[in-house]
């Protein structure tokens, strides 16, 4: 069997602070294969962002191991890229200047980076806007620009932490679809953390449900919606599948959300 791209082995995480100790994660175990898209859902405070912080080497597990390509994560790795809720584009830079920011900070080959950024912006439909400033773009376009900036660093793994939650509903649906398609086409391994169950189901190959804090893996669902060509339907089309609403109900039940 090949080595998984990402693996959590019996991972526990305790935070220690002035207010005392918080057990955020307990005995987390799962693996993600190369090119797989996995969503993680769970109630607020169950440790979703903590999982991402562990993966990008910002914190170390209290117990167990976090592995990328079979190697323990001990520091931030250039192979891991992010997309966050706030696009964090620099308003005083053009879209192209934003897209090359990563290589510029890392001291990479700027000619190659610029060529890569131009290609990405063209692919993401932003060619005409590359000399615009971020405030001249819509929310969805800004997220595509943020994705180009992340991809310009050529990461193998993408961590998506609520990347669409600042967008209005319609934009959110279409940008999730577009970005999901881009990530698949480019063969990246992706982990999406979201509170939006339909989004989690529509975008992923697998959905991992975490229990309340301390977060544990409560359920894992493999997603396979049938489609005419035998290929996975886009995130948008997946929402039409008969199995979709059944899966939504199951995950909703597992989250044990109590509405007063
Ligand atoms: N730096 C920290 N120091 C102490 N406790 C922390 C720290 N970061 C997170 N926690 C605690 O760890 C638990 C998990 O936090 P985390 O942010 O990972 O949850 P989450 O599932 O991402 O939440 P949300 O969905 O609300 O963003 C929470 O109880 C939180 O208060």
Helix amount: 25-40%
Query: How many individual β-strands?
Result: 10
Radius of gyration using CA atoms only: 19 Å
Class of secondary structure makeup: alpha/beta
Helix-strand sequence: EEEHEEEHHHHEHEHEEHH
- Main sheet: strand order: 6-7-8-3-9-10
Number of discrete helical segments = 9
**Any idea of the CATH class of one domain?**
Alpha Beta
CATH architecture of one domain: 3-Layer(aba) Sandwich
Mean pLDDT comes to 90
Strand content: 15-25%
* N-to-C CA distance: 47 Å
Small molecules in complex: adenosine-5'-triphosphate
Unreliable segments (pLDDT under 50, ≥5 consecutive)?
Answer: none
CATH fold-level topology of one domain = Rossmann fold
Largest sheet: 6 strands, mixed
GO molecular function, one term: ATP binding
Protein name: ABC transporter ATP-binding protein
Organism: Kaustia mangrovi
Pfam family, one: ABC_tran
Overall description:
The protein is of the alpha/beta class and 260 residues long. The protein has a domain at 1-79 and 199-260: Rossmann fold (3-Layer(aba) Sandwich), CATH 3.40.50. The chain has nine helices and ten strands. Strands 6-7-8-3-9-10 form a six-stranded mixed β-sheet, with helices on both faces. Strands 2-1-4-5 form a four-stranded antiparallel β-sheet. Helix 5 (139-151) packs parallel to helix 6 and helix 7 packs across helix 9. The longest helix is centred in the last third of the chain and has 17 residues, at 169-185. The model has no long low-confidence stretch (mean pLDDT 90). Bound molecules: adenosine-5'-triphosphate. Adenosine-5'-triphosphate binds next to strand 1, strand 2 and helix 1. Keywords: ATP-binding, Nucleotide-binding, Transport.
């Amino acid at each position: 069997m090949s080595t998984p791209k990402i693996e959590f082995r019996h991972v526990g995480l305790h935070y220690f602070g002035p207010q005392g100790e918080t057990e955020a994660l307990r005995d987390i175990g799962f693996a993600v294969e190369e090119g797989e898209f996995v969503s993680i859902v769970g109630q607020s405070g169950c440790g979703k962002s903590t999982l991402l912080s562990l993966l990008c080497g910002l914190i170390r597990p209290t117990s167990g191991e976090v592995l990328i390509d079979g190697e323990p994560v001990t520091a931030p790795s250039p192979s891991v890229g992010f997309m966050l809720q706030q696009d964090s584009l620099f308003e005083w830079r053009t879209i192209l200047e934003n897209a090359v920011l990563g290589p510029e900070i890392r001291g990479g080959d700027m000619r190659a980076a610029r060529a890569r950024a131009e290609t990405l912006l063209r692919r993401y439909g932003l060619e005409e806007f590359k000399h615009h400033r971020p405030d001249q773009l819509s929310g969805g376009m800004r997220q595509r620009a943020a994705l180009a900036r992340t991809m310009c660093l050529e990461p193998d793994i993408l961590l998506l932490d609520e990347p669409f939650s600042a967008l209005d509903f319609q934009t959110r649906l279409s940008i999730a679809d577009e970005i999901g398609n881009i990530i698949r086409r480019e063969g990246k391994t992706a982990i999406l953390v979201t509170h939006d169950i339909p989004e989690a189901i529509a975008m992923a190959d697998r959905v991992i449900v975490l229990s309340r804090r301390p977060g544990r893996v409560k359920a894992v669902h493999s997603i396979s919606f049938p489609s005419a060509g035998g290929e996975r339907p886009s995130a948008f089309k997946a929402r039409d599948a008969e199995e979709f609403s059944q899966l939504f109900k199951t995950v909703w039940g597992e989250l044990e959300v109590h509405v007063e």
